[in-house]
Amino acid sequence: MLIKRGGDIKSGEITDQALYLNRRAFMTGSVAGAAALALAPGAARAAAPPAAGQPLMAARNKAFDLPDATTKFQEATTYNNFYEFGVNKDDPAHLAGTLKPRPWKVTVDGLAHKPTTFDVDDILKMAPLEERVYRLRCVEGWSMVIPWIGFPLAALLKRVEPTGAAKYVEFSTLVDPDQFPGQKRGLFNFGGLDWPYTEGLRLDEALHPLTLLTAGMYGQVLPNQNGAPIRVVIPWKYGFKSAKSLVRIRLTADEPKTAWNKAAPQEYGFYSNVNPKVDHPRWSQATERRIGEFRRRETLMFNGYDQVAGLYSGMDLKKQY
Amino acid sequence: MTRRGRVALKVAVWAACLAPLAWLLYRAATGDLTANPISFITNLLGDWTLRILLTSLAMTPLRLLFGWSWPVALRRLLGLFAFFYVLLHFSVWLVLDHFFAWAQMGADIAKRPYITVGMAALVLMIPLAVTSTAGAIRRLGGKRWQWLHRLVYVIGLCGVLHYLWLAKKANPDPYYYAAAFVLLMAIRAWDWLRGALRAAPSPRPSPQRGEGA
Questions:
Q1: Is residue B201 part of a domain?
Q2: Structural domain range at position B154
Q3: Looking at the predicted complex, does its ipTM rise above 0.90?
Q4: N or C: where does chain B have the smaller number of CB atoms within 10 Å of the terminal CB?
């Protein structure tokens, strides 16, 4: 049996591979970028909107570097859970062409002094983009290591000035069955998730510097199947908490209803912190298979992000899972 | 059906049942086992176990509905192929997924209902595979052999439950398999009921109906 191993690959080589796989897009992107630089700053807006495969440059924030090898770009973009496209892991990569990530607006409202609907390109100018390598642990028991590009969600939330009553943040994904074929209701399409896909965080979790508003990965604009044009990444929680293709971020006083909790409340709690000691009712969470590796590895508390432990002091994480 | 026809039918079943394995080997040879090869292989082998098992359970209903005799001759071959695929499915779990971590696997069998019923189905298939020869039918006697082989209904139930309980909600696939199983059992129930109703008013012993599995 041929099992490909990725453990020996240095992270430096990964980016090369990503650029290699997308060399055409990289070339055209570079030309477009050079053209934009040559013109007046105002003219840059008229250049082609950023699309999947185009480079998105950001300085690496070395504070988040990991000893773990980075997952291959090819694997991170073909093995995805994104039920808006379908329930199979390869559906998103096959069907992602239907999603149109530009033009795109994101409404940030609810309990805020300055609720605003932003153009996604304006959001990307709010704070300097940085590259951060995060572990991603799926609730199904597999994991990846991905270099994301974005900035802390806190920078966006502070723009709208949350009121004192705001205690939670709700994220909503776009609903449009024409762009998301998995949202079409058919005769045999039952028992699914309720759309829109919603997720949520406590406000202090949302303001935590680890919580990343994300628009790119592997040095390029976020591919559609990974949640273009903008998503959140919360590395100490199971992957489904990191909602994709966001159109609304709402500040609330009450704990928001979340998609998987609504579908199976006994299996998916609001917090869903990565926790090797709290099993999913139907499978163990003690170990995980890192994509590209053969043997299972131990799952780490908070996915190895111990700096968030203080958010949960005094809580029984076995009960509030 | 002529002898040549029966041989052609068996060759076709062999080819159809080996095709998924050939497909898997081709994907392996071309390095196309997805980003999570172990999960891909396990799921593919599990899918085909269930498909072949349900196909074997469809043979008697075909006879009942259309009066054909040829499907019944394929039950053993299909049943043995289902056993072959379930052994591969189990081996991948044992070797590639858990690498002989016996304690972990033992805990999973006891604690995880989907693994419990999956293991039950596998274990129950062993006596059926062992007694699949003509000699075994002779030694056991037709009646006892028939009773033993009715275990396939329990195996089918365990198989569809295994998939229903392991899949995440929102995935409709396991419901299709469960519906197929219910339909195949319903046809048997309908036939049994029909036979019982016809037999009831008659003082004479009812004509021999069906052959069980």
A1: no
A2: 3-192
A3: no
A4: N
